[in-house]
Design brief:
4-stranded antiparallel sheet; 10 strands; Rossmann fold; about 280 residues
């Protein structure tokens, strides 16, 4: 096994006198999926944004493929951003309502001054299960699941190596979310992608992830192989997350099928809501 693609050490994030992330360290190997799970406000999304330098840590370090991204200059950081992207939780808010799909998908190419034609856009749409008829349309003309597919296509436009998936199905209907999860698994295999997958759902993390990191109040309370942690949780908080979830099928290598969808996608939100409203 080679060097990890992503390494973070002792990440701390403070907002004034409030510390929302306390000394979090992690690594992600090439081609694997690391799940980050915890209730709303646990610091999951803040950690993810620090990995991409969308949020500056108060202290700590982040290395991507050996490069210290926290000290990279603007030119170097722009080049790195082609290699790491994010898919946001809300497919409705993530797309500019005034832009047609062809403009949305072409935007990353324009920002990074790379050539793009209709063939490029057609390939992206096909990869996420859509076709060319989407190109002239506006976001409001699509369902939530279709919008999330467009978000994924945009994230893949520049062929990144690393994707942060920030609760990508929590705003979707259960059956639609299951289809999106299966799409993400297929894309990972096709493009050898590395994922950081943020979720409330322990069953979903068990299904999709190789390893899992459990967070509570800005701290890592348990980490390990996803199957091991989900089947034999050691910490009381992890046990509580599992206990709050309906029984789920132990089918790591299977597709999510209709009779498994609800249990696999059941949210473990001890905070009482479906969405994550974390700082950062």
């Amino acid at each position: 096994m080679g060097a990890p693609l992503v390494i973070a050490e002792d990440l701390v994030k403070q907002y004034g006198a409030q510390t929302v992330v306390h000394g979090v360290s992690l690594y992600i190997q090439r081609g694997e999926t690391l799940g980050v799970v915890g209730e709303s406000g646990s610091g999951k999304s803040t950690v993810a944004r620090m990995l991409l330098r969308l949020c500056e840590p108060t202290s700590g370090s982040v290395h991507f493929d050996g490069t210290d991204i926290l000290h990279a200059n603007a030119h170097h950081l722009r080049a790195l951003r082609k290699r790491m992207q994010i898919v946001f939780q809300d497919p409705y808010a993530a797309l500019n309502p005034r832009m047609r799909v062809r403009q949305i998908l072409a935007e990353p190419f324009a920002i990074h001054k790379q050539p793009c034609d209709r063939a490029h856009l057609s390939v992206l749409l096909k990869e996420v299960g859509l076709d060319d008829s989407a190109l002239p349309r506006f976001p409001h003309e699509f369902s939530g699941g279709q919008r999330q597919r467009i978000n994924i296509a945009r994230a893949l436009a520049l062929r990144p190596e690393f994707l942060v998936l920030d609760e990508p199905v929590s705003a979707l209907d259960v059956s639609v979310g299951a289809q999106v999860i299966n799409l993400l698994r297929d894309l990972q295999r096709t493009h050898s992608l590395t994922y950081l997958f943020i979720s409330h759902s322990m069953p979903l993390v068990r299904y999709l992830c190789d390893r899992v990191m459990v967070m509570q109040q800005g701290r890592v309370v348990e980490t390990g192989e996803a199957v091991s942690v989900c089947d034999h949780p050691q910490q009381p908080y992890t046990q509580a997350l599992i206990a709050a979830t309906p029984e789920f099928t132990h089918a790591k290598n299977a597709k999510i099928v209709p009779d498994m969808q609800r249990s696999l996608l059941g949210a473990c939100d001890l905070g009482g809501g479906q969405h994550d409203h974390e700082l950062g």
